[in-house]
Amino acid sequence: MERRQFLKWGTAAIVGTAVLGACTSDNGNTAPPGPAPTTSSPPSATGAGPTDLALAKTAASLEAMLIDAYTRLMNSRIVTSSALLAYTQLFLNHHMQHLAALNGVITTTPGQRAVSDPNEVMENQIVHPALDAAQTQDDFAHLFFTLEDAVAQTYVYASTAMSRPELRSSMMTIGGIEARHRALLGVEVEQLRLDDLFPSAFARADNPLPPDALLT
Amino acid sequence: MARLEAITRWLQAPTPVPYDTDYAAFAESLELAMVALYNDTLLKLTGENVATAARFRDHHQEHAQAYASLAAGKAKGVANNTLVFIETPTVQALTDEPSALSFLITLENQMAETYAYGLTLLTSPDVYRRVITTLPVESEHAAVLGTVANLAPEALFITGPFENASVGDGSDPRRGFDMAALPVS
Hints:
The structure holds 2 protein chains of 2 kinds. Chain A is mainly α. Chain A has helices at residues 3-9, 12-20, 50-75, 82-106, 120-133, 137-161, 165-189, 194-197.
């Protein structure tokens, strides 16, 4: 089963299959692209425009989701892998700084408050069921690789849709780091083959999230 | 009918601005320099690391082809002379596999930084979208090579929790490559 399909469909049953299963192939490219956000509203002079704002808020909610998930992982007694634990602490720190940076963008728009809550759709449909179902270290490894994979792709998707160069760059200064997370978990924890880690010479740019996970 | 729609879309697509086509040509030259530098460094690698590096070299070749197609005839089809020139003494001084891996990691980090900076300036959708889909792959190259080199987790992120969106003359591993300092040959 393809990880991105698992995220796109996002049901608890599929979560169980994906997290508890041992499949690692990611060669398929069958998931349809998600809906493109509207870009008809022009950006304001002082802050992110509506579309940019929605994408930044979605990214922030995903960062909050990862902070919550990594915190739960650290508090779990199941994980003993030194590699996974070392990455957990470091990645948690990265995600906290990413959230702060995104909130810096979001709050430049008058009236906008910082995002602190995890993405509700992702939490309810994917993260909580998967964490509750996880019983082994491998289960956690599958889940966190899948989450980092999806979040890294979300930054690519969001950056291509953003209206201003500086926002596209800012998003990808985070997106590149998320891609590193994905690669490190893929190689060191999931032990993926290069064919699976790099199905293409280019990153995918379609929306990997369930459509209702995009905030407005 | 489908062909007519494709032609209509093509006619309606915004023409890339000159800076962006210059940038695409610059990116092509950097990617071809990466191919050349990988080829030189492959000789210092062993076992599975040869296959890994060859795979990444092939990615750079694909990146170069993609940028050439966006450069509106400005692509030269040759490696960036300045980058190859400034890196050649380092390549020649590589004595073992760890030093070769370290060299490649630095280059990959600088490519990611180059693209992060480029995005602050690019306005043509075809060009900036290609940069956006290239950057994470270069970052991942650096990460994978870092694991091969047994780098500590913190050392895998030389610019911390963010890619550095700045460029220079190539001498600083925390800065990418400046188009003015490394012009297309």
